[in-house]
Amino acid sequence: MVKASVIVPAYNEEKDISDTVRRIKRVSKEYEVIVVDDGSSDRTKEKAAEAGATVISHPENRGKGAAMRTGASHAKGRFLVFIDASQFHPEQIPLLLEKAGSGTLVVGKRPFRVMHFGRRINNILSILSLFLATGRLARDVLSGFFVISKKDWNSLGLKQDRFQIEAEMNYKALSKGMKIVYVPVKVDYPPGLGLHRQFTNIKQVLSQVTFLSRLVLQSWAKPFKILSLKKR
Question: CA 39 to CA 10: how far, in whole Å?
Fold first, then answer.
C-alpha cells in the first residue's frame, strides 16, 4: 500500500504546477502525486501530466473543496498530503509525515508575520470562530498544507465545495477530539497578494464570514438540533 498520496488542487496554475510536481517527486519517488485540475482554462492539466502527476480533471470549476474531495477519493495512500499548487515548499512534506498518525491532523503552520493583511484577518476570524464553537484553540486554520490519514479524512464527512473546507475540516477535527499538531513551514507569497487581491471578491469574503458564523451558531444550537452545515 502506498504510504502517502500528495494531492494538489489546482486552478489556472500552469505557471507553477510543473515545478511543484517535480519537486514533490524529487522528495520521494514513493509518493503518489495527484493533481486535480479544477476546470482550468489554461494548460494546468497538460503541464501537470508532463511533469509526471496523475491528473484528474473537473470539466468546470467546482471549487477547492470539491477538488480536494475528488483527489482524496482517488488516492491509494494511507496518509493524504494536501498542498497548494504554489507558495509552499514540497521539500517539507517529510516533516509533516513524521508527525502523522491515526486520529491526528498535522498542519503546516505559516509564519504569521509574512501573511498579507487579508490573510491575517481571515485567519484571526477563523481561529476566534473555532474557539467559540469548540472551546479549543487552533493556530493556522486556513493553511493549505496538511496531512491526515485517509481513514480520518473519510470520517470527517466534509461537504464544503470551496475554500471554506479548511475551516470545516478544523472544526470537525476539533469537535471529534482529534489531535492537531502544528509544524512550522516556509511559504512564499508572490507580489500582488496584498489587501486589494484579498478583498476583491466581496462575495467570497461574505461567504467566509457567513460560514464561520454558522459554525458558531451550530455548535451553540446543537443540543436543540436547529442548524446544520450546508454545502456551499
Answer: 9
Q: Which domains, and CATH codes, for the chain?
A: 4-116+138-191 (3.90.550.10)
**Are 180 and 143 contacting, i.e. CB atoms less than 8 angstroms apart?**
no
Dihedral pair phi/psi, residue 147, rounded to 5° = -130, 140
Torsion from C-alpha of 117, 127, 108, 51, nearest 10 degrees: -70
Pair 158, 65: CB distance under 8 Å: yes
How confident is residue 194, by pLDDT bands cut at 50, 70 and 90? Answer: very low
pLDDT in tens, 78-97: 999 999 999 999 999 999 99
| Dmax (CA) of the chain | 53
Distance between CA atoms of residues 178 and 51, nearest Å: 35
Q: Which residue, 2, 12, 59, is CA-closest to 34?
A: 2
Q: What is the pLDDT of residues 99-126, one digit of tens each?
A: 999 999 999 999 988 887 777 877 888 8
Distance, CA of 55 to CA of 125 (rounded, Å): 34
SS3 28: coil
Q: What is the Cβ-side half-sphere exposure of residue 118, based on CA atoms within 13 angstroms? A: 16
Cα distance between residue 176 and residue 199, in whole Å: 32
